[in-house]
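Here is the promised in-class demo. Please do not try to memorize the tokens; focus on the logic of going from shape to residues.
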């Protein structure tokens, strides 16, 4: 039964590390941008948008569709960066664990 006790202890430690990582991701901020920096979006590591900055030149009549496209692109850029950052954090957390290939722990 010693192995079961070791497994339970390891699981408890992993759970604590996951909670710490979640808190850290909430504090980290990435910035996505599009249109050469005309639209910028800041997002937490947990995908909460914290700020949007739009260059005044895009706030003209007839620019609505361009602004919408640039905003979607900036959000996608920020999301990609946040996902990469979260994956790097998870990789450092699970380093050395015997997980099967392709196995992902939940966020």
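The designed amino acids, position by position:
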């Amino acid at each position: 039964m010693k192995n079961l006790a070791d497994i339970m202890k390891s699981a408890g430690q992993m759970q604590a590390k996951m909670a710490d990582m979640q808190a850290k991701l909430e504090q980290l901020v990435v910035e996505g941008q599009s249109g050469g920096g005309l639209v910028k979006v800041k997002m937490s590591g947990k995908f909460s948008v914290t700020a949007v900055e739009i260059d005044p030149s895009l706030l003209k009549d007839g620019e609505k569709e361009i602004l919408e496209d640039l905003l979607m692109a900036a959000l996608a850029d920020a999301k990609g960066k946040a996902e990469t950052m979260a994956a790097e954090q998870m990789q450092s957390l699970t380093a050395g664990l015997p997980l099967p290939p392709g196995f992902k722990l939940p966020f």
